[in-house]
Write a structure and sequence with these properties.
By secondary structure, this protein is α/β, with parallel strands linked by helices. Helix content is 55%, strand content 10%. It is globular, with a radius of gyration of 19 Å.
Length: 231
């Protein structure tokens, strides 16, 4: 899929939701409502890390049951710092629903190999994996939670222009930024790329809080939109 296809797929989803429930004009995108009220999918919280001890599973989707499951470690009511990760996990699984379910539902009439066995999800989301479908679901989730036009509007309202922030501007304040981020995060990785990511995530944090996503997710989105620039 090309970049614009993810933008278009997410924009269509939000337009469909807006036609029924009112257009989304400002962040954050109500991802729970998009899933439950618009698409009529269920959201369930479970201890996925115990169910899947072989891997660090954060989310799962069952296409036939129209069910998205999120690991209990991400529930923002219990762990407020995980709000962004919780929302992105929901949007990621929704990306599978939107982009990939036809690959599975077309086999709906096939008999299971073990009809009496436990029902397994069609996809599980681990903290780190690089399957192409997982990458696609991440791209969709980013466009859905951080719609391009709303990001641009919020950027202009915040900055007063559409001028990007350059990494060298942040490096000029590196010591101050890293000191603040070390306190906030409880420690930092200090390789050059990790430090540069922290600097840019510090710059992205005000918008990340508005969109209720992680600074990392907002940094990646802003870099893709050329509003955060490394050179």
């Amino acid at each position: 899929m090309e970049d614009q296809e993810f933008e278009d797929a997410a924009a269509l989803m939000l337009a469909e939701y807006g036609n029924q429930h009112g257009q989304i004009m400002a962040p954050p995108v109500p991802i729970d409502d998009v899933i439950e009220e618009h698409l009529k999918l269920a959201i369930e919280i479970r201890d996925l890390r115990t169910e899947y001890p072989e891997g660090d599973v954060l989310g799962a989707i069952y296409f036939y049951r129209k069910l998205i499951v999120v690991d209990q470690s991400l529930v923002p009511e219990d762990f407020p710092a995980m709000l962004g990760r919780y929302r992105f996990t929901l949007a990621h699984e929704l990306g599978h629903w939107r982009l990939h379910r036809h690959l599975y539902l077309r086999r709906a009439n096939e008999r299971p190999l073990l009809p009496d066995g436990p029902v397994r999800p069609n996809h599980v989301l681990r903290s780190r994996q690089y399957d192409p479908k997982e990458v696609q679901a991440n791209r969709f989730a980013s466009c859905l939670l951080m719609p391009r036009e709303i990001v641009k509007r919020e950027w202009f309202d915040w900055r007063g222009s559409m001028d990007p922030i350059h990494l060298d501007e942040l490096q000029a304040r590196q010591q101050q930024i890293l000191a603040a981020e070390m306190i906030r995060r409880g420690g930092l990785s200090m390789g050059e790329e990790a430090v540069n990511n922290v600097l840019m995530e510090h710059a992205a944090r005000p918008l990340a809080e508005k969109f209720a996503v992680s600074p990392e997710a907002m940094r990646i989105r802003l870099e893709g939109m050329k509003l955060l620039v490394r050179t």
